[in-house]
Amino acid sequence: MKNFSTILVAVDFSDSSDNAFQLALSMAQKFTAHLVILHVINEPIDLRGFYVPHISYEKLEEEIVEGAEKMMQSFCRLHLDDFSDFETAIVPGMPYEQILQQADDSGADLIVLGTHGRTGLDHVLFGSTAEKVVRKSKFPVLTVRLDEDD
Ligand code: AMP
Questions:
Q1: How far is the CA of 67 from the centre of ligand 1 (A)?
Q2: What is the CATH number of the domain that holds 59?
Q3: Residue 108 — left, alpha, or beta (φ > 0 → left; ψ -120 to 50 → alpha)?
Q4: N or C, which terminus of the chain has less Cβ within 10 Å?
Q5: Residue 58 alpha carbon to ligand 1 centre in Å
Q6: How many CB atoms lie within 10 A of CB 75?
Q7: Residue 121 structural domain
Q8: Closest atom of ligand 1 to CA, residue 113
């Protein structure tokens, strides 16, 4: 059986990605793999200086990054127990592009993500991030569906 050495798990802090994370963590433990926990700040690029020109975007971005870092810290405190072979990454951009890019940069040999995220379009088979990652990734991708009864 293939032994994974670096697993990248993409979290958007939804129930679906929490669920995918649990599987990524079990796999990292089983394979003694390094876990890269990635969150992408999906920035509303169109809003910059266009609708609300009086807002300082530098300040806003700083606060968004700080907020995301706090969420990541409490996520790790809550979910990682005594697992220590991990790193976190918070980057701005388009989620699917950054998931692929960060997987490449970190030398991941497996990407784990939920089939759906915070957009919650349950009637579609895959959310748009999941679909694009599956279609474009050169690495194996494991998508995890959250059962309604979980
Ligand atoms: P979606 O396709 O957007 O419904 O989301 C499917 C999965 O992609 C989620 O369960 C996450 O695992 C991942 N994902 C979506 N958005 C992000 C994001 N901003 N940062 C990290 N992972 C994400």
A1: 18
A2: 3.40.50.620
A3: beta
A4: N
A5: 25
A6: 18
A7: 6-145
A8: 12
